[in-house]
# Entry
Amino acid sequence: MNILVVRNDKLGDFITALPTLYVLKHHNPQNRLIALVAPLNRKLAESCDFIDEVIVDSGEDILELSFKIKEARIDASITLFSNTRVALAQWIARIPIRIAPATKIAQIFYNRRITQRRSEVKMAEFEYNLQLSRTLFPDISLEFPKPLLVYAGASQAYESFCCEYEITKPVVAFHPGFGGSSDANWTLAEYIELVKLAESYQPIDVVMTFGPDEEDLYNEAKEMLGESRVILYRSRGSVVDFAMLLSGMKIFVSTSTGTYHLASAVGCETFTFFADTLFASSARWKSIGEKQSHFMIPLDPVGRASMFENVKQELKNRLSILS
# Structure
């Protein structure tokens, strides 16, 4: 069976779809799994051995998208997050079985509509995604390995990174930038305070990571750190290249964004900050990996300050173990 799985939005959202793709492939290895993804997730999707084909949604019109889909000769589709454009494209492509959550006007173009009410957050986003696979295969196992993303060249890539930056100790990384759909974060000054706390532990090396479009944030952090042994790293290469580096790090500290999901998917321990709302909470957006520490940042200044002190204490506890 040729099965299309649609998750054509941001990095973190796509990573929440990976367990679904995995279980569908492993339910029957004869299944051909096709992923419809946004351009930024193409290389990540192509790196997964449980995805057989990748269709890139480049934002073309509905007819062009439907032609791409029709060429793949799809027997069934599972749309994890829908809009009218992708729903209509699948309908025009005449996919026999079209599964999606029963939300928005787009649901009229699907012939198997599943009520989930994700806004109630009775489970995490990736768990809602997994549940949709049971519409197609009621007896499917929803178990998947952790870490889910394992790369053959990861050790070599991490060793090269360590050689370039003269890293000789376990790495704790901080990613201060916003991204994706993150709704809460500490200020750069607060991140620098956490970074300096970690820097005081001699048996570890501290890295701050920055996206390719975060030049200003990089320069500001560099100025605030002054003379420091902290390594500032600007991402280069693909998402997969960054994933391989993350797989060698011990702890990744960041807000709830795509890089957090990526770190967890490759097995790195995460310290993650979420908005203190149900929609943006860790209950909804916990990652697909293990070893996760979640912190909800309150909106009020007193609660925020108290939570920051809690984060510092928890980080001290974990760094002491690493040391």
In short: The domain at 154-322 is CATH 3.40.50.2000 (Rossmann fold).
